[in-house]
Specification:
The chain has 356 residues and is α+β, with helices and mostly antiparallel strands. Helices cover 42% and strands 19% of the residues. Helix 6 crosses helix 11. The model has no long low-confidence stretch (mean pLDDT 90). It binds 3,4-dihydroxyphenylalanine.
């Protein structure tokens, strides 16, 4: 057999053995017999010295070419095994997340939270910010600063729950470090005071939150409920801005055919004060049971911020004017969905809550 034939045979055998290996391990085990000194090509290389000088160049070239072909076949096989290994590994480490989804059914936000978030969205769309305050308040924020001094008869509008702090029945947080009672806020109006104390006008903000009154639960009352407060303080704000804002809000929240109107009323923290009604959302003004055939339903209170309230917050009432409003969120929600009993919202019967 000529040297060229021997090289061709060695190459064919090496490539065949590569093709026969069926995993990375057997391929690695093959490597000494492919590339080592004891490989067939290795032994042939050692015979180079015995080859005629004339043939040496062509034999050398054939050896290099065989070497290249074997390396290439080896490389291709190795890559194939490596990618199979990577695929197996990925498959083994894959996380099946569908299982955990199936095993825990998803809930949703409570109707009151949904309503609160929708109200916030509408006001944010009108350029208002959202502010919050604490649920346990001092007498100063809940009453005094809102133009309701201790002996004011209007305090009886609010059945207040006072907190029992043990020995410390009073803490010094009244104006000028004076001692004051701690209570559960009876309305969201104290957040108005906190906002005005914290930032200079112009102010355009709404304050949603939980409020508390000493009431027995019945179909239309709960001792814990929710309100949203609005406060605007700027140069040249008038009653027309209040009426326009409420009307704009009503149309945006309830839809085009629902309007609002103001009726004179009294609140210590506003002057003049009003109550605001909206077109009955059930009959759209025609008159029905819900609106007692008037076509209107009462939503909340509002008015021009009393100069004393501005002064209490360090705002010059000669320079700035403002309006405020506040209404109940729970009542709004049950009206919208035709829920007959307010208590159903809080008994946590999942069959009831699931409907909304
Ligand atoms: N805080 C009042 C209440 O709970 C509602 C209210 C009336 C809020 C007039 C206001 C307002 O901001 O201007 O009955």
């Amino acid at each position: 057999m000529s040297v060229h034939e021997q090289i061709a045979e060695a190459q064919a055998e090496a490539v065949a053995s590569i093709e026969q290996s069926n995993d990375l391990e057997s391929l690695t085990a093959l490597e000494p017999s492919l590339f080592g000194k004891k490989s067939q090509l290795g032994s042939l290389k050692r015979l180079m010295g015995e080859v005629d000088a004339d043939d040496r160049a062509s034999v050398g070239e054939a050896l290099n070419e065989a070497q290249r072909i074997i390396r290439e076949a080896h490389g291709v096989a190795k890559e194939r095994f490596l990618s199979a290994t990577r695929r197996d590994q990925l498959e083994a480490e894959r996380l099946d997340l569908t299982e955990s989804l199936e095993s825990s059914p998803q809930g949703h936000l409570h109707l009151v939270t949904q309503t609160m978030e929708r109200l916030e969205d509408v006001f944010v769309g009108m350029g208002f910010t959202v502010s919050e305050g604490p649920q346990a308040e001092t007498d100063w924020y809940n009453f005094e600063a809102l133009n309701l001094p201790a002996a004011h008869p209007a305090r009886s509008m609010f059945d207040t729950l006072y907190l029992d702090l043990g020995d410390r029945t009073e803490i010094g947080d009244g104006q000028g470090g004076e001692a004051t009672n701690i209570l559960l806020r009876t309305h969201t109006s104290p957040v108005q005071i906190r906002v005005m104390e914290m930032m200079p006008p112009p102010i355009y903000t709404v304050c949603p939150g939980r409020v508390f009154r000493r009431d027995t639960a019945d179909a239309s009352h709960m001792p814990v409920f929710h309100q949203i407060e609005g406060l605007v303080v700027d140069h040249g704000i008038s009653l027309a801005d209040l009426a326009g804002t409420l009307n704009e809000f009503t149309a945006a929240y309830f839809g085009g055919s629902i309007r609002s109107r103001l009726r004179p009323s009294y609140f210590p923290f506003t002057e003049p004060s009003a109550e605001f009604d909206i077109t009955c959302v059930i009959c759209e003004g025609d008159g029905c049971q819900t609106c007692q055939r008037t076509g209107w339903i009462e939503l909340g209170g509002c008015g021009m911020v009393h100069p004393n309230v501005l002064t209490n917050c360090g705002i010059d009432s000669e320079e700035w004017t403002g309006f405020a409003f506040g209404f109940g969120i729970d009542r709004l929600a049950i009206m919208r969905y035709g829920i007959k009993d307010l208590r159903d919202m809080y008994t946590n019967d999942i069959r009831f809550l699931r409907q909304f």
